[in-house]
Design a protein that fits this description.
Layout lengths: L2 E10 L2 E10 L1 H11 L9 H11 L11 H4 L9 E6 L3 E11 L2 E7 L15 H18 L7 H9 L1 H8 L9 H4 L9 H4 L15 E14 L8 E13 L6 E7 L7 E6 L8 H5 L15 E5 L6 E8 L6 E10 L2 E10 L9 E7 L9 E5 L3 E5 L4 E5 L9 E9 L18 E2 L1 E7 L7 E2 L5 E3 L5 E16 L15
Parallel strand pairs: 6-23
Antiparallel strand pairs: 1-2, 1-5, 3-4, 4-5, 6-7, 7-11, 8-10, 8-21, 8-22, 9-11, 12-13, 13-18, 14-17, 14-20, 15-18, 16-17, 19-23, 20-23
Amino acid sequence: MSLRALWIIYNEKGENASIRFSRRFSTVEHRAKSLAGSSYVAVPEDSSFLQLLLTELGLSGSHKSYVAVRDDCLYRPRSPAVELRLDGKGTLWPVLALSQAPLILACLPLVDIPSEPRPPLANLLSVSQGLTFLAGLQTFLLGSAGNLDSEGLVSRMATLPSLLLQVCPLGTLLDTPQAVTPAAPTVPTSAGAQKQPAWKTGLHRGRATVNVAVVETVRSMQYGSPTRQDLWDVYGTVTCKCEVEGVLPNVTVTLSLPHNGSPLQDILVHPCVTSLDSSILTASSVDNADGSAFSGPYKFPFSPPLEPFRLCSYTSQVPVPPILGSYQLKEEENNLRLSVSLKLHESVKNSFEYCAAHLPFFNRNQMGVVDVKVSSGQLDVSKEKNLLVWVLGQKFPKSHEVTLDGKITFSGSSQGPSDPLCTGLTAYIKQLYLKVPDTTLSGCFVDQHSVQVYSSAKPRIITSRELLSKEYYIWNSTGPAPVSSGQMMI
């Protein structure tokens, strides 16, 4: 069920009536226009709507006791769903109105079936849901006993924008106000006095939790040749999910590096970050690295949205890739002899969630005999795809080095997959897939004790970090290979 518009009218003793709050939902109005077609009736301005509604309810203060459009015997009122006749512009229906002095609550629900001939009210789900919504809103504003508390009413009216974001986002009714919002105190709190920003779709209620995850991704092009320079780069993201009470809660996350960590560069931050040290913004990978590079700590104060968001992203110039590889192929009559060596750098944690290497072979017949041995892990062979999958498991041996050796005959009757780049001995280990929990190449981490949350309740702090690989290639060193002339682009 959706609402086209909502009004709250203050009508003290039938005099000086005024609209204290109104909200129109343009997305729902667009749907109403599409559904109604040529019979569409636009919602009038607030001043016109107020006069028409007061006249229809007999509260206009007019000295005329008889109004033809309202009191003619041909007209059958269907309170609380009234219709407002607009001069030459059609009839606005069904306008739902609930009155309890001194407030009149009115809304215009979206009717998604033809309005002519006029359907029975009992058949319209939007009418019953709209009345339930108004009744809940009435209870929220006036209390269950219906006694007016002037200070409490002012306080609760101030929370209406944030309330509607929760129970009726973009005009779509999710719940009734009293079901999701406790009775507001008569004295407004400091959070309630703050204005709800447009980008924040609601308020969190419940236990405070802050979750911060650092994920670094490494890419590499390795050639195993003195004439071709190996390339690698690292970029990281810090993702946050903050469930903290308050309209604009303040949170500070600090990124730290060990004494031998690689400084963070090219830092980009989310718009919710409120301030930042200039040395953080000026650190760039384009400049030549020197000993004066800012190495933290990196503080990010911000007021978080409700949904998970990327707090910042960065790059880091680490001295070595996590795994150094060597790949050699040699043609021997109808066989292809291969040798692979992979070495885990000592600075990388030897504990993987997964680690695997794919060795594809292009522009050849399908595999025949595969005689290949590995020093560690498991080898899977897909002859139809001309593919070797070397699953290294969750740990390198104590030597931190593993090897693969053997030969393959391509004696199949049908052709295998093709790639215009990989002809002759031009070949590569297509991907080195790895995921290492609780580690980063730069050394970047978030200490739980460094996360500051300015809230009345002590939050639960959860931090994590991990290393992933992407586009990690190791080329055959005995054949030609494409070479990039510059740094890998992120």
